Amino acid sequence: MSAKMALFSYVPYLNRDSDTCGRILDLNDELLEKIKYEQSKAAHTRANGCAWAIDGDQLVAVLFIKDAQKLVNDMKIWSENQPQTFFRVIIGQSGDKYAVVIVPDLDMSLTRFRLSHQTITGNELELGDKDVSVIFTAVGFLSKPGAPMYAKMKDRIGKEIKIAFLDVEAEQFESSLMEQAIPLGTLKIEDTSYNGGYFSYYCNS
Questions:
Q1: Terminus-to-terminus CA distance in the chain, angstroms?
Q2: Which long-range contacts does 176-179 make (Cβ < 8 Å, 24+ apart)?
C-alpha cells in the first residue's frame, strides 16, 4: 500500500515557514490538525455575495467577504504578486444556483513545491508510489436559488475574468462599486462545468 502524504498549496493566513514550505507531511501529522484549528479561527473564505460589473470591456465578479483587504494581500503574497499565474477561477451553474470559486493552480503549486523542497533539503522531490493529497482552501461564492444577475451576465463569460473583493463592512454606497472594490487580478477560468459539488470539494480538500 502506498504511503498517504500531503503537501500544501494555498491556505489563507498560513504561517509559511519551514514547517510547511517544501515539506511533505504524513496525513496523520499533528501539524495538519494544528492548521485545521488555526483555519477555523481565520476569516471565512466563503463570500456573502457576488456583484457583477463591466469595467471597460471586461467582466468583473466582485465578491463580498470579511477582511477583504487582508485576504487580497495574503493571496498576492502567496502568489508572489502574480495571482494571474498561481490562481484559477471555476464558474458554473447547477439548477438555479451558481458558484464563483478561486482555487490555486495545482500544477504551479507542485512546481514551486518541488523547487522549495530542493532548496531546503538539497534533494529533488521523489514522490515514488506515494499517494499525495494537496491541501488548500478555496475562496468563493455559492449563490442562493435564483440568480437573475448571473443569468444576464453568464453569456459574457469567456476564458478569463477580473476578480475583485469588497469588504462586507464597507460603506457600500459612498461611491461606485468599482471604486471601492479591491482588485485581485484577471484570472483564467479553469472550467465552467460546475455540477453542484465543486464548491464543497474545493473548500474541503
A1: 22
A2: 177/51, 177/53, 177/62, 178/53, 178/55, 178/60, 178/62
Cβ(102)–Cβ(74) below 8 Å = no
Per DSSP, helices labelled H in the chain are 30-41, 68-78, 83-86, 106-121, 148-153, 177-180, 198-204
What are residue 45's phi and psi, to 5 degrees?
Answer: -105, 10
pTM exceeds 0.90 for this model:
no
Do the bridges between strand 25-26 and strand 49-55 make them parallel or antiparallel, or are there none, so unpaired?
unpaired
pLDDT tens digits, 167-195: 987 655 555 777 889 999 999 998 644 44
DSSP states of 126-186: --TT-EEEEE---EEEEPPS--HHHHHHGGG--SEEEEEEEETTS-TTSS-HHHH-EEEEE
Contact 163, 184 (CB under 8 A): yes
Q: How far apart are CA 182 and CA 17, in angstroms?
A: 27
pLDDT in tens, 129-175: 667 777 788 898 988 887 778 888 888 888 999 999 999 876 555 55
Say yes or no to pLDDT of 202 above 60: no
Burial of 123 (0-12, 13-18, 19+ CB in 10 A): exposed
CA distance 36 to 202: 15
